[in-house]
Amino acid sequence: MKSKFLNINKIVLSVAVLALVGCTNLDEKVIDEVLGSEIADPEAALAAAYSQLGEGTFVDHGSVFALQEYSTDEALLPTRGSDWGDGGKWRAMHEFSWDANSDVVKTTWNQLNFGITKSLTAISSASKSGGANKALFLAEAKGLLAYYTYTTIDLFGQAPYRDPDNINAPIQIRKAETTIDDLIKEVEGLIPNLADIKTQNTHAGRFTKQAAYALLADMYLNRAVLKNKTAGDFNFLEQAVNGGGTDMDKVIEYSNLLINNPNFSLESNYFHNFDINNDTSKEMIFTIVQKKIANSDKGSDNDLAYMSMERIQKPSPDNRGTNASCITPEFYYSWDGNHNDPRFQRTYQYEDGTWFRNDGTDVSVPSTSKVEGTGKPWFHFNRGLQVGQQYGPKILSNGNFDLTADGRIKVYKLFTEKNTTLAADFTPELNFDNPSEAVFTQAQINRGVRNFKFEFDPGYGNNGTSGMDVPLYRLGTIYMMRAEAYFRNGNVGAALADVNRLRTSRTNDALKGNAPGVALASLDANTLLKESGFELYWEMYRRKALIRFKKFDQAGTAKPASQPYRRIFPIPQATIDASKDFTQNSGY
């Protein structure tokens, strides 16, 4: 039987989702009170569990992204004039002043708990079904549960669980130090019942065998940290859970299964992995499908592109950025001597050959590129890290782009929207008046290099939906994991080979002669961490890497030196107040 679930991104899930959310409002309740109403259709229950990946959880800047990136050198959301104050909740993530009442911490915890609850409901529903796809759906639901739980114990040190086959079962609290081994065993046990990617109508948006391999490599890479996250040192060479070599041997083993799989290959255009049409990328192993669902905005978000773009930067007459997120000087200057790396920046070329150089030499670009659904002109900004004076289109009083007599989009030097005499000139230095607080005056709002890694989708509003699938695991991630495992195993030559494979497989745009990245001659721990940042910046990977490399606690721009307990976030106070099952993490 061909399952209607096999095209999950086209199913409207509102009934299933509302049923679960209505019974599991984690602002007021925890899952010991109710697992969630049973859903007879296992496909709808499983689709709801998938949908939660994109219900802000991993696609909005204010949830998992905020905890994994705003707490590091890769991303910062300062207060800019009168914008983005919000009681200091965004700055707190970088200033390390969050606590158990933090809105961002609470939101992330709740969303991950929704994912756990929906996965448990999907497991229960699949277990009770008798369909031909029972074993497959059950394995996928358990894989999603493992992914949500792994993310939760990584961020919070503990996660809730309850037997999905017993609605009266007591809640269990899974602690990171013991749960990591259990999760590894559980995911390894799922592999026989999971589909290989591109079989049984699966794709990167489904939890396949290959998604399991990627998750296992990730869990083994971080196993030593999860077993004692506040430790001064980590034993990365501990014997693996099943005794088959060390943790790093298992990272290499599972990485090999992906790197040697002919379904995957590295993209020469690095930024294609983050294009609106990135579902055609050959790197995608496990993603959040964001293609437009008919009559629904569920599971889709444009934040990864929108948040870093200035308000005056307009991809279409109907869209603009919001002048929020940037990167720190520390991360920007880590690229010194490497600006020709194809992952640093890419210049856009229009179909008629026009380049948008963004350097003051541009006069106009074609208006032949159109926004789907509106038919209005689409102005394509360059990709990667954007520094210096910015250029782009202007909007006339009639709401349209200013065009030349022959219908091309005029390109202007841009000035900030709220201070029209202040040039939109992005500077690497942030220079806060109070070095410990990420606060700018209105005259300082253009400070900070911006990240245009992800393509802005102008089809659905400023920070609305996006057609870009969000990669959770892609082939570049796996190469970087394997390089680190080789390095920690003492095989520096193999680690260097993987790093150089990533560097030289990427090529620049034609304006730079399609030149490939340059190979390194040597590799040490500091260089390896820099290379991790070059390949994986803004992909919700940095916090884990900084902890493994013992850099997370160090002082930085608007960040004080911090204590090891900050490597784990607090359980929200509302949860502690509502349930006797949870205990607060040490330090909070």
Could you characterize what this model shows?
This protein has 588 residues and is mainly α. The protein has a domain at 39-194 and 566-587: Serine Threonine Protein Phosphatase 5, Tetratricopeptide repeat (Alpha Horseshoe), CATH 1.25.40.390. It is 34% helix and 8% strand. The strands form eight sheets. It has a three-stranded antiparallel beta sheet, with no helix packed on it. Strands 1-15 form a two-stranded parallel sheet. It is globular, with a radius of gyration of 23 Å. The N and C termini lie far apart (52 Å). The relative contact order is 0.15.
In short:
The chain is mainly alpha-helical and 588 residues long.
Question: How do the strands and helices of this protein lay out in sequence?
Answer:
Blueprint: H1 14-23, H2 42-57, H3 64-70, E1 79-80, H4 89-95, H5 103-128, H6 134-156, E2 158-161, E3 172-175, H7 176-190, H8 209-227, H9 247-259, E4 284-288, H10 303-306, H11 329-333, E5 345-346, E6 348-349, E7 355-356, E8 364-365, E9 383-386, E10 388-389, E11 391-392, E12 409-410, E13 412-413, E14 425-426, E15 439-440, E16 450-452, E17 470-474, H12 475-488, H13 492-505, H14 525-536, H15 542-548, H16 573-578
Parallel strand pairs: 1-15
Antiparallel strand pairs: 2-3, 4-17, 5-9, 6-7, 8-12, 9-16, 10-14, 11-13
Helix pairs in contact: 2-5, 2-6, 5-6, 6-7, 6-8, 7-8, 8-9, 8-12, 9-12, 12-13, 12-14
